[in-house]
Design brief:
Blueprint lengths: L8 E3 L8 H7 L10 H17 L5 E6 L2 H12 L5 E6 L2 H12 L3 E6 L8 H10 L5 E7 L11 H11 L4 E5 L18 E5 L10 E6 L1 H6 L12 H5 L14 H17 L1 H23 L4 E3 L12 E6 L3 H13 L1 E5 L14 E5 L6 H17 L8 H11 L4
Parallel strand pairs: 1-11, 3-4, 3-5, 5-6, 6-7
Antiparallel strand pairs: 2-8, 7-8, 9-10, 10-12, 11-12
Helix pairs in contact: 1-9, 2-9, 5-6, 10-12, 10-13, 11-12, 12-13
Length: 403
């Protein structure tokens, strides 16, 4: 007998939980794709994407793709063959962006900070000082790496580049952070950023997004990796509505995104960021409590300042993470994220890692419900753990006050 029947919950880092408002907005016939409503819809979405990124002067390009497509779009417009990129990697997704650039003919230099450390601005500055010929075209870094959940200090990266007076562009992957974690493209001096629809923007996978500053547009004007579909120029300055999307508009994704952007503006970014921070702290409190008497730990166990607010990576030893994930899905209707890049696939250690997402359309009862089912699973599977994890999480939620 199972208790999983009912509405299931994907507590994975994308696709995130989709609001009923978004689903209802998408449940309509396609509009005229040549003129009228679609033109107004596309233009309004671009303006509000600037708001979410806090980049009022940015140029925005929308692609029919996932986040990997957004990487390729950014790479195609940033680089010419033989250009050099410096990638600051703090997990699988930083390394993945580097691999994409390398496969496209970019000379990629990677500084790998491992799975438990943030990118070091001092090391970045030292590396750029050695580049006296200014071969490095761009510094690429994830804001939150979706695998390790390490959050990088983007203003510190900008300061390191400026301290050297280096002309390198600062390119940031915000796929796991946009709409969840404070990010201020313009104030932080970010030149290029990428995101996707399926996480903090609360829309199904299918839209890849790229923002670029005036500086980036000028520096990348002659990039020879640019191809007709990935070229951001017509998308950022369309004469006709189809040019926003390189062809037929992704109409129903646009309906959903328009609704989600309305929801974001209604709540306000400051409130959204505070909500995500509190829910993240509740998850951390539960895992810290469980780990007091068991082989359970957060990936970033010793430094909460490095943790992103949208997803939490954790370890449960002796294959406990994989056993717990399977129990939760089959017995409780909750799906947790798999561990990515934390151990070699196929090894025994790979079964020790999982991720709990708390991004986008989530609230206290959703997060506490996931934690309660995790605690039930730990009990059902006889996985050693300290008592009171849910109570610790509830105390964090109880202490949250709204101004």
């Amino acid at each position: 007998m199972t208790l999983a029947n009912g509405r299931s919950y994907l507590a994975i880092p994308g696709p995130s939980a989709m609001p009923d408002r978004v689903l209802r907005a998408m449940h309509q016939a396609a509009p005229n794709i040549y003129e009228g409503e679609i033109e107004t819809l596309a233009a309004s979405i671009v303006e509000d994407l600037k708001y979410v990124a806090q980049g009022p002067q940015a140029h925005v390009a929308i692609y029919i793709s996932n986040g990997h497509g957004a990487w390729e779009a950014a790479n195609s417009n940033m680089f010419s063959r033989g250009d050099t990129a410096l990638v600051l990697a703090t997990g699988r997704f930083g390394l993945g962006w580097a691999d994409h650039a390398r496969s496209m003919g970019v000379d990629v230099e990677v500084i790998d900070f491992g799975l438990k450390s943030a990118a070091d601005p001092v090391q970045l500055e030292a590396t750029l000082r050695k580049d006296t010929g200014h071969k490095i075209k761009a510094v690429m870094v994830t804001h939150i790496d979706t695998a390790t959940t390490v959050r990088n200090d983007i203003p510190a990266m900008r300061a390191a580049i400026d301290a050297v007076g280096h002309p390198a562009l600062l390119a940031v992957d915000c796929i796991a952070s946009l709409g969840c974690e404070p990010f201020k493209m313009q104030d932080w001096g970010v030149d290029i950023m990428v995101a996707a629809s399926q996480k903090g923007l609360m829309v199904p996978p299918g839209l890849g997004l790229v923002w670029a500053s005036d500086k980036a547009i000028a520096a990348c004007r002659d990039a020879d990796l640019r191809t007709p579909y990935w070229d951001w120029t017509p998308r950022m300055n369309p004469e006709f509505v189809y040019q926003y999307f390189g062809g037929t508009s992704p109409t129903h994704h646009l309906f959903g995104l328009r609704e989600s952007l309305d929801m974001i503006k209604e709540e306000g970014l400051d409130a959204i960021w505070a909500r995500h921070k509190t829910l993240a702290r509740a998850v951390w409190a539960a895992f810290d409590t469980w780990g007091a008497q068991g082989d359970i730990s957060l990936n970033l166990a010793n430094d909460a300042s490095l943790r992103g607010s949208s997803v939490t990576a954790a370890r449960i030893g002796n294959g406990g993470a994989e056993r717990l994930r399977k129990w939760l899905e089959t017995q409780a209707g909750v799906t947790l994220g798999i561990g990515l890049g934390m151990a070699e696939p196929g090894t025994k250690e790979a079964d020790d890692f999982l991720r709990v997402a708390h991004m986008g359309h989530v609230n206290a009862h959703m997060t506490l419900g996931v934690l309660a089912t995790i605690e039930a699973g730990l009990q059902a599977l006889d996985i050693p753990h300290g008592p009171g994890g849910v109570a610790a999480a509830a105390a964090v939620v109880a202490a949250h006050t709204v101004a």
